[in-house]
Amino acid sequence: MEKDMEKVLQKAEVLIEALPYIQRFNRKIIVVKYGGSAMSNEELQRNVIKDVTLLKLVGFKPIIVHGGGKEISRWVGKVGMEPRFVNGLRVTDAETMEIAEMVLNKVNKGLVSMVQELGVKAVGVSGKDGGLLKVEKKYSDGQDIGYVGEVTQVNPKVLYDLLEKDFLPIVAPIGMDEGFSTYNINADDAACAIASAVDAEKLAFLTDIEGLYRDINDKSSFISRLTVGEADELISGGFIGGGMLPKLNNCTAAVRNGVNRVHILDGRVPHCLLLEIFTRQGIGTAIISDDDHL
């Protein structure tokens, strides 16, 4: 009986610890970029969706921006094509673009179903809807990589309308250029552009790593909090490499463009989003502005 009471009290303490964060972020917009391995496992997928749904139910205004790269590669392979990448960016010809849009829409509606199963109203849109994401053709070191878009303009009206009507928007990273051609957008880029445009309180990247390290081979060098200035020093010092470099550049750009905090979290850890937002300790890396002393 005593043990049971102890468990109940622990639960109460967790709720009390979360209370100031719930109050602070009530009615604030939080953008969650969701992709990578956390997306390829259905149980992890459900955990992430539960977290975002809980955020919605306690008064936050979450927006999910999702990727689907692994699923696109799978379908490209299914139709007998070979996925091609230049500097880590998918080469997207007209046929690949068609497959990418089909797959991203499929992923999008799957996430909508999961959210609605948990009793929250969700609407899936792509960057084409309501002119949400306008793009221009992106080149990789001068190389033509096909229908890959760089976001030039965000019109967030469709997102504000959905939030106002109490829907949870789920965005697929597809946009259109001036001539209304369809382009695939890197989901990290789309999430940053959207978070900046809606003045998000937080932008959370669910990734395949625990967060940032000063030395990737030294687990004790984990960085739980980093200012934009410190991030720039890490980048110029050559400490950050590979796929983390564009992600960190995106994070610092988002903070400079008005997003209050950016979080890099390991999406493979169940409920990482709740642990980072509602506990004093947190579990990932938070990137903050140079004058943020909290």
Characterization of this structure:
The protein is an alpha/beta fold and 294 residues long. The protein is 43% helix and 26% strand. The chain has helices at 2-25, 37-40, 42-57, 69-78, 94-117, 157-164, 187-197, 228-236, 244-256, 272-278, and strands at residues 29-34, 61-66, 85-86, 89-90, 122-126, 133-140, 143-154, 168-172, 174-176, 182-185, 202-207, 212-213, 222-223, 225-227, 261-266, 285-288. The strands form four sheets. It has an eight-stranded mixed sheet, with helices on both faces. Helix 4 crosses helix 5, helix 7 (187-197) runs parallel beside helix 9 and helix 8 packs antiparallel against helix 9. The longest helix has 24 residues, at 2-25.
Give a quick summary of the entry.
This protein is of the alpha/beta class and 294 residues long.
Descriptors:
8-stranded mixed sheet; 4-stranded mixed sheet; 294 residues; alpha/beta; single chain; globular; 16 strands; 10 helices
| Radius of gyration, CA atoms, in whole angstroms | 19 Å
Instruction: Compute the number of strand runs.
Output: 16
Intertermini distance: 40 Å
* Helix fraction bin: 40-55%
Largest sheet: 8 strands, mixed
The dominant shape is: globular
Arithmetic mean pLDDT: 87
Q: Uncertain segments of ≥5 residues (pLDDT<50)?
A: none
Provide the fold topology.
Layout: H1 2-25, E1 29-34, H2 37-40, H3 42-57, E2 61-66, H4 69-78, E3 85-86, E4 89-90, H5 94-117, E5 122-126, E6 133-140, E7 143-154, H6 157-164, E8 168-172, E9 174-176, E10 182-185, H7 187-197, E11 202-207, E12 212-213, E13 222-223, E14 225-227, H8 228-236, H9 244-256, E15 261-266, H10 272-278, E16 285-288
Parallel strand pairs: 1-2, 1-11, 2-8, 5-8, 7-10, 11-15, 14-16
Antiparallel strand pairs: 3-4, 6-7, 9-10, 12-13, 15-16
Helix pairs in contact: 4-5, 7-9, 8-9
